[in-house]
Design a protein that fits this description.
The structure is a homodimer. With about 120 residues, the first copy, chain A, is an alpha+beta fold. Helix content of chain A is about 45%, strand content about 15%. The structure holds a DNA duplex (20 and 20 nucleotides).
Chain lengths: ~120, ~120
DNA sequence: CGGTATCCCCTACGATACTG
DNA sequence: CAGTATCGTAGGGGATACCG
């Protein structure tokens, strides 16, 4: 029973999760969060660079996603008091613990796309 | 570059994905799909049992999610022509390849919840 | 028992414009 | 350069009722 799915209730920010898997997906499951984590895997990145590195990531959704990751203590934000402003983001230790999972999921997606010949010419 | 994120375009069901990670999340990232995969990890299950095993899973969302998984060739559906009707679901080989990832993600969620003392008494 | 159909809501997400 | 504000949309998701 130890490593089985816990049925115990998880409470987080006034929300409830019946399963740790559902909870994990809440933290990183939406469209851009895991992409951000992926792109931060090799170290801190400047805000603009990070945003540009992710295709189709609008400024609005970037802010939205990175703020959520920050709140959840997966990403750390550092502001340098210079002009023009400079902001860097990097993974926290807890955020880094997600890297292997994200890498695996990415690889799985690659394999699936290759097997089914989904890559456009 | 081999195991890096491919920038190549993935086309799937009239949708486009710029990253294999985003694509993978499209396949299993929403609220219940990964939970279904998790609960099928030990073998085939009868429809009703499977549905009941997942807390808060409505009949409607169960059908919706399992149909999508079926279309994506991650789950196989077997109908037994008896009365009353009996239907079983099981992971395909491709679906099984997701088990380790889902297990890891589940464990990660457990660890996070434990560290932050999120488990309700 | 297993599944579909309808109605409706909420929110993740997009586009655009604007501030320090 | 970094971020916020506002408006608008699509679809994931809940509740309920109904078929073979």
């Amino acid at each position: 029973m130890e490593d089985d799915a816990k049925k115990e209730l998880i409470e987080y920010n006034d929300k409830e999760f019946n399963c740790s898997l559902a909870f994990a997906l809440h933290l990183i499951g939406d469209k851009y969060k895991s992409l951000i984590i992926y792109h931060l895997k090799d170290g801190a990145q400047r805000s603009g660079e990070l945003q540009k590195s992710i295709t189709d990531l609008s400024n609005r959704m970037f802010t939205y996603s990175i703020r959520a990751l920050e709140k959840d203590n997966l990403v750390k934000r550092t502001v340098y008091p210079v002009t023009p402003p400079k902001v860097e983001y990097e993974l926290t230790e807890e955020g880094k613990s997600l890297i292997p999972i994200v890498l695996e999921l990415n690889k799985w997606g690659q394999d699936f796309a290759s097997k089914h010949h989904l890559y456009a010419p």
